[in-house]
Amino acid sequence: MLDLALSGAAAAAPLKPGAFSSRRYCARFFLSLCACLVLLRKADSFLERAPPGNSPLLQPIWTWALRHPWWVEHVGFGAMVAFAAYIVSCLYFTYLDLTRSFDTKIQKQYWPTVREMIVAGAPQIAIYAGANWMWYSYGYQRIELPAQAPRLTVFAEEVLVAFVVGDFLIYWEHRVMHMFRFLRTHIHSWHHAYTAPFGWAGGVVHPLEDMVVVVCQTTAPILFAHHPLSFWTFVALWTVLLIEEHSGHDVVWAPYNWMPFARCPMGGGAAPHDIHHYKVTKNFAFCLCVWDHLFGTFEPVKEVPDLPAHLRVKSS
């Protein structure tokens, strides 16, 4: 198991005065974010003045969802969405591992075995499936859903805000887990059992940390009263990107490859996060590497990443 007993001081290294490129990337990111939010607000003001009777573009999707009230009116439906996204994304990366997708593999000398996948994935499937079944069967809590879908501009703004706020909170949750010895040793070490992560390993987290992560995810949607459709979409995308980040594959649709300022990078994903699993004071971020740039914990991605010593021995 990776030694997590590194000093909190190392994990909290400040941004160096000469890190001009990081400052420039951060400035570009936040200016772009502000511009996106302003444009969405302006567009929404225009759409709000549309003639009465014009339905939002997302209304057909929302109307279809409302036809299944027993599912969608339960307060825990978001957990069902997350579980479905988790299974689909894990199966996708399992396929890449089993077919030896060499072009996308990051640590090319290491491939997870079927046994390792089962050991990591089976308990999670049992726990998540069992918890959702129990919640629906014995703890059903109905909520009132709006009849109207969100306007497309509102939907886009809510998903964007949820990602930025959630990602910021997750960055600091993750970093705090490394800063304090007790948290590193007794809680976060569960997740760091894997120095070469793969899809099913992405969800291996201590139950206490898992609860904190859920709070970080849901803070913005609850605090800003986001539409349920925006929340469910955010949860699904968040879960897919969580698995992608730990997949061990640098796929073309990872935020690291398509977000503005790609390869600077502002977007996160498996390419930068793989480094964190064997250089644990670097690359704490999730979807947005901007936080690592901003707080001085960014480690650039190399074409051929440094392979941890125990894996070099294993693969030789």
Task: Describe the fold and architecture.
The protein has one domain (about 60-315). With about 325 residues, it is mostly helical. It contains 14 helices and no strands. The radius of gyration is 21 Å and the shape is globular. Residues about 1-20 and about 310-315 have low confidence and may be disordered.
pLDDT < 50 runs, ≥5 residues: 1-20, 310-316
Report the structural category. Answer: mainly alpha
Query: Over the alpha carbons, how many angstroms does the gyration radius reach?
Result: 21 Å
Please count the helical segments: 14
Tally of distinct domains: 1
The dominant shape is globular
Helix content: 55-70%
Number of strands: 0
Distance between the termini: 19 Å
What fraction of residues sit in β-strands?
under 5%
Which sequence of SSEs, written as H and E, runs from N to C?
HHHHHHHHHHHHHH
Largest sheet: none
The average pLDDT score comes to 85
Top keywords for this entry?
mainly alpha; 0% strand; disordered N terminus
Topology overview:
Blueprint: H1 8-11, H2 20-48, H3 59-66, H4 69-72, H5 77-98, H6 114-138, H7 152-179, H8 181-186, H9 207-223, H10 228-245, H11 255-258, H12 270-276, H13 290-295, H14 309-315
Helix pairs in contact: 2-7, 5-6, 5-10, 7-9, 7-10
How is this structure best summarized?
By secondary structure, this protein is mostly helical.
